[in-house]
Amino acid sequence: MSDVEPSAAQRLVLARVADILVAEGFGMPAASVVGVAGRLLDQCLGAAPSLAAPLTALLDEMPTDGLDDFVRELAASRPDDFAVLSTAVVGAYYLSAEVRELIGYPGQQPAPLSVAGEPEYLDMLARVYDRHPGYRECP
Question: What global pTM score does this model have?
Answer without folding.
Answer: 0.76
